[in-house]
Amino acid sequence: SSLKVELISAGDHQHPLLNISWNLSPDGSIQELIATMICIQSPWEYVCFRCNYSKRFKSEVVQGKPWLFYYAEHPASPETSYLFTAFNIPPPNIGEDLPEQALQLKTPGCENNLMKNLKYCQDDVDVLWKPNISLCLINNNVMEINFTTHEQSSRYAVYLVNNASKQDIDTTTIPWSNNSRVTVRFEGSYPETLYVEIDPRFPSCLNDCTQ
Q1: Which GO terms describe its cellular component (predicted)?
Q2: Which residue of 17, 87, 103, 156 has the lowest C-beta tally within 10 Å?
């Protein structure tokens, strides 16, 4: 497969989309091909989707060109580094490791025409954010955190901190969400006193936003 990625518009005030396209190699292996797996990795997520081909390919090319497919439903965040990988199922040589195509892309910042109309990019001052954090211990080993998101934060770093030592017990990063409330769960053993820190990423402060 030949892998390409570009940004496309999804309309005003909507996150641009990652338009992922791939060609199928015009050789005999295409006749056994049943699916292609595409994976997207960013600093806060790793997701994969599988494109199943509904019928066996009867020809190696279509209208004289390699078969071309697209996936354009994954939103793109500003100033984010993405790694894309793709591999075919089954591999050309059964029993061998899956050969994969890999591609890196860093999306532009708020100065880009596709990004600048995002609400995230239109606020140049600190955002008044009220996360309304709740913390609940479930069955003595699962810590559940709920908080209110803000549409202008592109991601949230969530920390569980030991109140006595001020050391991080656990941490995770979650991407932008259009849900008003999100839930994060940690599993383990915990000290008697701890607290939660949530680090948002607003356009005005990026990695230095108030926790």
Answers
A1: plasma membrane
A2: 103
